[in-house]
Amino acid sequence: MAEKTTGGWRQNKWVRAAIPALLLHCSIGTVYCWSIFSQEIADHIGFSKGATEWAFSFAIFFLGMSAAFLGNIVEKDIHKSSLIATICFAAGMAGTGFFIWYGGNHKGSLLSLIGIYISYGFIMGIGLGTGYLSPVKTLMLWFSDRKGLATGLAVAGFGAAKAIASPVMQAILGDNKNGEIYKMFWILAVVYFIMMFVGHLLLKKPDSWHEPQSGEKKPGIMETLRTRPISNYIGIWLMFYINITCGLALISQEKMIVKCVGLAAFAGIISTVSAIFNAGGRLGFSAWADTMKDRNSVYKLIFILSIVFTALVMLTQGIKNGEGNGLLIFLVLALIFFVNAGYGGGFSNVPTLLSDHFGMKSISAVHGMCLSAWAIAGLTGNQLATYIVKHVGEFRDMVLSDGTVVSVNTQGYQTVLYVTLALYVVACIVCFTMIPKKGGEKA
User: Fold this and answer.
1) For the chain, N or C: smaller number of CB within 10 Å?
2) Considering only CA atoms, which of 354, 374, 372, 373 is closest in space to residue 364?
3) What is the pTM of this model?
């Protein structure tokens, strides 16, 4: 088997697959750090925080879309795709820094805002999509008997990137008294280019894997999907989309929910623990799935437990009545932590579940098409929760322990749970009815 091949570092699965995957994913995963400096960017260029937040939404959208449309490039040549990812991600980061600098010298200039959208959203988005896909198939080929563990390791790196990079960015950013936030992007562009370029150089499929040559016919995406009932693929796409949408809906309101139950002083710690659960879910659920006869069982577990925790907080009005009540606070935190874990686990199990059903020959292209669900969820998850909170219930002022006054809408946050509960039920039904136990071709 490929993972047992000897012959030094050139045939070492950790050097040729695991390490380059982590270098790529730990770099591109820092896209989630946008919230750390979005307010500073907004102040620096003279726009509202809401206007700058669209840069992140565009980045996630183009991540999914580039993965969907460039999956065939990844399938044909991982070196070309990983190089595209390296150049686009670093160029997008540097371009974002340039337009922040420009906006600082031309306050309120629409050119600076559009430039940030293009750089952070479109250009970096292409780097994100190709970078996310490039090492996945290679990992599954090298770790053929532990595919879930391998892909979970890389995807966990993507999830943990924020926790790793946040303190570094904060240190570089400092107090931003001189308005030089753009320099941080230039520094990081160089750092991430080096990391990703090293990953690009190291990444290699095992010699035992035979890719069709130029003269050979390779099955296209639709031909591959037709090897199984198309409802299988639609079912996987739907439950992936719903899991991301529900995760983003709750995670986007996490800080305010924590404040509602009287834990504002621990918001930073809870955020860190949530990130650990997110990364842990990516690695843990996928590694666990390797031991199961039916990998879809992991999704059944994720959705059933998500329904249970959401229903408990919903029925007890935990967000509304949680302040000072230890049991309700426990239930709210359990919901937050498990949704983060399930959100991460949903990501890491998709490529292996797809490979179980559709085989390995065109897995990069099929996986890329499935990531379009991430693109759409990236535009709908946060916005769905924001819309509900703005239009259901009433905002009231809450005085925190340090005397700070914040405006919260407990009824709005509770209503978000009604919607996510309904979506989780739909996902659970899809999981049980549209995705059969028996897979297709195996690698």
Assistant:
1) N
2) 354
3) 0.86
